[in-house]
């Protein structure tokens, strides 16, 4: 049995009720429930008495260092079999790291530790690394985002990596590491015995200087399938270096996030080669890069290559206009694999939707999720959107937020939703203004179609 509760303040009677349930749960998830250190005493007893408990998720609770000390008493008992521990944003400091080090050293069942968004600091995580180096530690996933780490942490991390062949996922995003530290980390990863599958380095102060070393990891670690370097100013020159690793035969990348990396259409030539030739790649995010229409047209050409297997393409806020929509439509009419397309915050306009129509309605197109929020759309394109909603039965998610559709447009959308051929499950409509009459229509639709969720 699993207990999964979010955003519920716990009064004493409710907490007592849940404690009796927890004694038989294999997973307990209590994110954002106003828990404190006193609740951790009870949870420690639950861990001690419930050997079937394998997952404990307590994100966004003010547990503090004292709470973790209580919790870890249960985690250190011989009967504990916990595998996954989530403590993100729990007001922890470096003082908690000695306690957590003891758990890492003594609890071989623990395979996941998520402690991001806590002020652990470099000194605290150095203590954690000591636990990682213990032969009893079998950790596979370590998440350290927003932990106020600096470049000084890398030497200890590399030492831990050398002794930890079990580690598969390492997330260090949103820490001020800088190029020198990232280069050092990458050299350590190349030499490490671990089969790393996920490496997240978003917003780590990386520039093009680090990209040759990241590329070397891609070339040498065929296990690496998920790389995120978003929110780093690597630029076109950095991307060119990354692509050397991405195009290497050893590279088996599946998910690549490059959002807000100062890329332009110049990078799209290299990215097109990756999309068209790297058959393992199924998801790429290029959000908030100035690719413009010329860049998007190159990407669309790559999507038409028979070898392209991409399933998700995120090009939100990329400086696109109506002019690229013909190329996108052409790609959609050829590519059978693309299921998720994010094109929001681009000035596509009503004419752009009309151009997309042919590709979206083509039998080859298997799109499931289409995001067109803030694309300068008006009521004039809603007849076309309604046709797509009714005709494309694989389409289950549509975002039209921040567009001026008004009542006329919304009524056409409602008419499409009433059609039994429309299989939409989620319609996102943030910041669209409509009358009380249209609001009544939308509420009635939700009642008559329980599978439909309208978010506004």
Q: What does the main sheet amount to?
A: 17 strands, parallel
Q: What's the CATH H-level superfamily name of the largest domain? A: Ribonuclease Inhibitor
End-to-end Cα distance, whole Å, is 33 Å
Structural class: alpha/beta
Annotated CATH architecture of the largest domain:
Alpha-Beta Horseshoe
Estimate the mean pLDDT confidence.
96
Write a structural description.
- The protein has 456 residues and is α/β, with parallel strands linked by helices.
- It has 4 domains: 1-148, Alpha-Beta Horseshoe (Leucine-rich repeat, LRR (right-handed beta-alpha superhelix)); 152-254, Leucine-rich repeat, LRR (right-handed beta-alpha superhelix) (Alpha-Beta Horseshoe), CATH 3.80.10; 263-366, Leucine-rich repeat, LRR (right-handed beta-alpha superhelix); 377-455, Leucine-rich repeat, LRR (right-handed beta-alpha superhelix).
- It has helices spanning 12-22, 37-49, 64-75, 95-106, 121-132, 154-163, 178-191, 211-220, 235-246, 267-277, 292-303, 325-334, 349-361, 382-391, 406-418, 436-448, and strands at 2-4, 27-29, 55-57, 84-86, 112-114, 141-143, 169-171, 198-200, 226-228, 255-257, 283-285, 312-314, 340-342, 369-371, 397-399, 426-428, 453-455.
- It has a 17-stranded parallel beta sheet, with no helix packed on it.
- Helix 3 (64-75) links the parallel strand 3 and strand 4.
- The protein starts with a strand and ends with a strand.
- The mean pLDDT is 96.
List the defining traits of the structure above.
NLRP_innate_immun_reg; Leucine-rich repeat, LRR (right-handed beta-alpha superhelix); 456 residues; 11% strand; alpha/beta; cytoplasm; 4 domains; globular; 41% helix; single chain
């Amino acid at each position: 049995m699993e207990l999964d509760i979010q955003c519920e303040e716990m009064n004493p009677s409710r907490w007592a009720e849940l404690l009796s349930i927890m004694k038989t749960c294999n997973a307990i998830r209590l994110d954002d429930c106003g828990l404190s250190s006193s609740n951790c005493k009870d949870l420690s007893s639950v861990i001690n008495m419930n050997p079937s408990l394998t997952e404990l998720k307590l994100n966004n609770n003010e547990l503090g260092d004292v709470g973790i000390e209580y919790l870890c008493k249960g985690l250190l008992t011989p009967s504990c079999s916990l595998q996954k521990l989530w403590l993100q944003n729990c007001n922890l400091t470096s003082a908690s790291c000695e306690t957590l080090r003891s758990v890492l050293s003594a609890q071989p069942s623990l395979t996941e530790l998520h402690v991001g968004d806590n002020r652990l600091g470099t000194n605290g995580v150095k203590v954690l690394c000591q636990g990682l180096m213990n032969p009893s530690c079998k950790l596979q996933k370590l998440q350290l985002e927003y932990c106020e780490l600096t470049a000084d942490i890398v030497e200890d991390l590399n030492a831990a990596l050398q002794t930890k062949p079990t580690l598969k996922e390492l997330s260090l995003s949103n820490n001020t590491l800088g190029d020198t530290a990232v280069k050092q980390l990458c050299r350590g990863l190349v030499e490490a015995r671990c089969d790393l599958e996920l490496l997240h380095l978003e917003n780590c102060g990386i520039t093009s200087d680090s990209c040759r070393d990241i590329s070397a990891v891609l070339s040498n670690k065929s296990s690496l399938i998920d790389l995120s370097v978003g929110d780093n100013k690597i630029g076109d020159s950095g991307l060119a270096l990354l692509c050397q690793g991405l195009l290497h035969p050893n590279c088996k990348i599946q998910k690549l996030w490059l959002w807000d990396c100062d890329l332009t259409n110049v990078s799209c030539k290299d990215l097109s080669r990756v999309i068209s030739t790297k058959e393992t790649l199924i998801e790429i995010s290029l959000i908030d890069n100035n690719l413009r229409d010329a860049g998007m047209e190159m990407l669309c050409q790559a999507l038409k290559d028979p070898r392209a297997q991409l399933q998700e393409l995120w090009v939100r806020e990329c400086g696109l206009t109506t002019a690229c929509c013909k190329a996108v439509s052409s790609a959609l009419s050829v590519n059978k694999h693309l299921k998720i397309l994010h094109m929001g915050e681009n000035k596509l306009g009503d004419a752009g939707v009309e151009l997309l129509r042919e590709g979206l309605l083509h039998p080859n197109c298997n799109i499931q999720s289409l995001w067109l929020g803030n694309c300068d759309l008006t009521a004039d394109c809603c007849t076309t959107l309604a046709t797509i909603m009714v005709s494309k039965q694989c389409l289950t998610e549509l975002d039209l937020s921040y567009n001026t559709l008004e009542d006329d447009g919304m009524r056409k959308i409602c008419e499409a939703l009433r059609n039994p051929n429309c299989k939409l499950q989620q319609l996102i409509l943030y910041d669209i203004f409509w009358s009380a009459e249209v609001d009544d229509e939308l509420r009635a639709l939700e009642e008559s179609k329980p599978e439909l969720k309208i978010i506004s």
